[in-house]
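User: I'm writing a tutorial on reading structure tokens. Could you give me a worked example: one chain, its sequence, then its tokens, then a sentence or two explaining what the tokens reveal?
Assistant: Sure. Here is the example chain.
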Amino acid sequence: MNVGLNVPDHTTLSRRNSTLKTSLKRIGKPNGRVDLVIDSTGLVIHGEGRWTRHKHGKRKRRGWRKLHIGVSNGLIVAKWLSEYRKTDGEIAPNLIHQVGRIDSITADKAYDQSRVYEASNDHMNEAGQINIHPRANAVVSASDEAALRQRNQHIKSIDEDGVLAWRRTSGYYRQSEVENMFFRYKKLIGDELRARGENSRRVESVIACNILNQFRLLGSPQSTLVA
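And here are its predicted structure tokens:
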């Protein structure tokens, strides 16, 4: 186009990335029900590329970070980047707090912890539903807290009708929304964090989530059930 534009070099962008103040944009956040679905996935932070491993063999231990996200209506509404040692239950209250009031929450067995139920109950409407998959060895709790009453009912339903029937009737299969989001993240963005510093990695993950939300706002396929 023969347009003279001043563009910063890669080193400048990398250096400024660590001090960039960015946050998860709320553009397109649904005004109706907020059915939150949460989960985490691992992202590589260092290690040789495929060619180096092929030529010289594996020489360095690969590092990881965990990306925790909350999805509602096809949009990422909460995110957190942590060390891989952090458990999902530890980070879940942070995701819930970012969203605020929710109508329901869906999560897998890794979130079957009392602190997750407590955080969900604190931010949930009176008719809210907690669809956290009970662990395989889960037992009915003697506590009379509202959140744990739902957990007790899930355990009883699984014991009476089986886990597959419970998943269908409880709405647990909404969990696929966050799994699909991770699939899109790794296909479009990649499965690694390219930045070297921790602050830069957080910025990188926020920008990636904002990009996916913008893609979602551009349009999505409309599905129709065909008999």
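What the tokens reveal: Strands lie at 35-46, 63-72, 75-83, 102-107, 124-132. Helices lie at 10-17, 50-56, 88-99, 114-122, 146-161, 163-170, 176-189, 198-218.
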